[in-house]
Design a protein that fits this description.
The chain is an alpha/beta fold. It contains 15 helices and 21 strands. The protein is globular, with a radius of gyration of 24 Å. InterPro entries: FAD-bind_Monooxygenase_sf, FAD/NAD-bd_sf, Flavin_mOase-like.
């Protein structure tokens, strides 16, 4: 990193939806002294990393895009990975973000300097300092692969192993015996895509998923023409999609028993494709729909019913040579293993690289569970903000809505710092963080994610839901419209080497 870039006003970490959105909002606020640090060689975040066969979004295209950057030319109602990644590349170009991008700059360490009141950032391509850090690394960034006895030996003997988010496109699955581990959103897209070409496919299913039919179709040329010529029609379409999902929230958060009707739709989706009662029994969940992420597919069940597919209704416990052993004693000989086992969501590795004002890492601060103020700022980490932070996830709608709300909060945060003057920091009060999280967790108690009878990736090691927002996106937007300065301590540098603190009532 060149000498003139050693200090910036803002450093943004990550270039997915959150990072690019933050960069756009900073420019709109008149902040041009910023960089976007990205460890990969291109933008796109999870939509760059997840290029597995069949990868697509389970949120309608017109809702899964920035409100300030509509795309009238989405090809399908639920667009695929290739088109979403291309959209993000266009966004980077349209909003002039390329000069701010620092590709190949993986952040190795960040440390708050209590004397200079700024962040010291070490990357793989040089060091820099920043007044403010916006962490948009995202919870779906670092794949999680379980520690299975015999896995290393399987690879040493020539077996191929990869995670869905690190797909090995150089390995031809044609005619191979393949095991897929997991039944999450990635697995149910991968299985129908690869089933016709593999010799045998074995699914190791620890817990079955609720799968609703995917109402996907091509968007017609006439629709796309109308959205280009009359943008209000695309806005109306987006608004309708948003409104329907807002109306669904109360069932998830207040009345989980009302979701029984939705379960019947999912069961009918299964029954149409799976005639074998034994296989249907394996695939039928024993928990309330919505407790785990509801999945969308009209091809998953038909693929599982094909003669070259086996479903092991147990987790993978051991590998002996090229034989995979399930918890129920089932065995399968395979040539390749694909892990669809999710990500480090509640234990994000980047938290280990961030050291705050008290000399402890973010991971240490969050050892009993992630907590932040309004999903954005953490106690002990001044001038630090997360995009898609704790308890900002959604179970039924578009994360872009939550990201845009957090961008509003970021913009007001920057405005406050500007008004307070140079050498000023905002530090979230521990009492404010604790109060916010008490309210969130109190609302969480009756939600389907807590009482639905499942163990999901929404829960941390202590069984606490630190991932999902227990309300509507409109509620979250109101909660993050503006920064409440009473929730922060203001720290000012009067001169080099000294500082004063101002506590705002």
């Amino acid at each position: 990193m060149s000498q003139h870039e050693r200090h910036v006003r803002v450093a943004v970490i990550g270039s997915g939806f959150g990072g690019l959105g933050a960069a756009i909002r900073l420019r709109r606020e008149g902040v041009t002294d910023f960089v976007v640090l990205e460890r990969a060689d291109s933008v796109g975040g999870t939509w760059r990393d997840n290029s597995y066969p069949g990868c697509a979004c389970d949120v309608p295209s017109h809702l899964y895009s920035f409100s300030f950057a509509p795309n009238p030319d989405w090809p399908r109602t639920f667009s695929g990975q290739r088109h979403i990644r291309a959209y993000l590349e266009r966004v980077a170009d349209t909003f002039g973000l390329r000069p701010h991008l620092r590709l190949g700059h993986e952040v190795r360490r960040m440390r708050w300097d209590n004397d200079e009141l700024r962040w010291e950032i070490e990357t793989g391509r040089g060091d820099l300092t920043a007044d403010v850090v916006v962490c948009a690394a995202g919870p779906l960034s670092d794949p999680k692969i379980p520690d299975i006895p015999g896995l290393a030996a399987f690879e040493e003997q020539g077996g191929r192993v990869f995670h869905s988010a690190r797909w090995d496109h150089g390995y031809d699955l044609t005619g191979k015996r393949v095991a897929v581990i997991g039944t999450g959103a990635s697995a149910i897209q991968i299985i129908p895509a690869i089933q016709p070409e593999v010799r045998r496919l074995t699914l190791f299913q620890r817990t079955p998923a609720w799968v609703m039919p995917r109402m996907d179709r091509p968007i017609t040329a006439a629709e796309r023409w109308l959205h280009r010529k009359v943008p209000a029609t695309a806005t109306a379409r987006r608004g309708l999609l948003w409104g329907i999902r807002e109306l669904q929230v109360s069932a998830f958060t207040k009345r989980p028993n009302e979701l029984g009707l939705v379960e019947n739709i999912a069961k009918a989706n299964m029954a149409r494709a799976v005639r074998d009662p034994e296989l249907r029994a394996k695939l039928t969940p024993d928990y309330r729909i919505g407790c785990k992420r509801i999945l969308l597919s009209s091809e998953y069940y038909p693929a599982l019913a094909r003669p070259n597919v086996d479903v092991v209704a147990a987790g993978l416990t051991e590998i002996r040579g090229n034989r995979l052993i399930g918890a129920d004693g089932s065995e399968a000989e395979v040539d390749a293993i694909v892990f669809g086992t999710g990500f480090h969501v509640t234990d994000m590795p980047i938290a280990e690289r961030v050291t705050g004002a008290d000399g402890i890492t973010l991971a240490e601060s969050w050892k009993d569970g992630m907590e932040s103020l309004r999903g954005a700022t953490a106690a002990g980490f001044p001038n630090w903000m997360t995009i898609i932070g704790p308890n900002t996830g959604l179970g039924n709608s578009s994360m872009i809505l939550m990201i845009e709300s957090q961008l509003n909060y970021l913009a007001d945060y920057i405005r406050h710092l500007d008004r307070l003057g140079p050498g000023t920091t905002l530090a979230a009060r521990p009492s404010a963080v604790a109060a916010w999280n008490r309210r969130v967790q109190d609302r969480m108690k009756r939600t389907v994610w807590n009482v639905g009878g499942c163990d999901s990736w929404y829960l941390d090691a202590n069984g606490r839901n630190t991932t999902i927002w227990p309300g509507t996106t409109a509620e979250f937007r109101r909660a993050t419209r503006a920064v409440d300065l009473s929730e922060y301590e203001v720290v000012r540098v009067r001169d080099r080497g000294s500082r004063t603190e101002e506590a705002l009532a």
